[in-house]
Design goal:
Layout (H helix, E strand, L loop, with lengths): L3 H15 L4 E6 L11 H8 L4 E7 L2 E6 L6 E3 L34 E5 L2 E3 L1
InterPro entries: FPG_cat, FPG_N
Pfam families: Fapy_DNA_glyco (PF01149)
Protein name: Formamidopyrimidine-DNA glycosylase
């Protein structure tokens, strides 16, 4: 299970690489265990065109503050992580996604593409 430093590393990676960028595309898995209360297509539609203002964290929960709602939140669970294509999110384990890697991962539940960066 991700510990506080891992969640903070993910928050900082998003803060450093994604703030000020506009969401061009959003893909949401149809998984009611992970995404509840809204359909994937509604969430996708509500995200596209928004700008990421900041990445916030409290404990093991992280959320994106956008220029207007919704503000998607993430609870990393047992194996959850943030991946930013081409960026090593943590220094002590494989956390960078290379060009030859499947993108987004088949395990991705929420994927966004912003200007020149892809986050999953």
């Amino acid at each position: 299970m991700p510990e506080l430093p891992e969640v903070e590393a993910a928050r900082r990676a998003v803060q450093d690489n994604c703030v000020g960028k506009k969401i061009l595309n959003c893909v949401v898995a149809d998984d009611p265990k992970v995404i509840d209360g809204v359909s994937p297509s509604e969430l996708q539609a509500s995200m596209v065109g928004k700008t990421i203002v900041s990445a916030r964290r409290k404990g093991k929960n992280m959320w994106l503050q956008l220029d207007s709602p919704p503000f998607p939140s993430f609870q990393f669970g047992m194996a959850g992580a943030i991946y930013i294509k081409g960026v090593a999110v943590t220094k002590y384990k494989r956390s960078a996604v290379n060009d030859e890697d499947q993108w987004p991962s088949k395990y991705s539940k929420f994927f966004i593409e912003v200007n020149d960066v892809r986050v999953g």
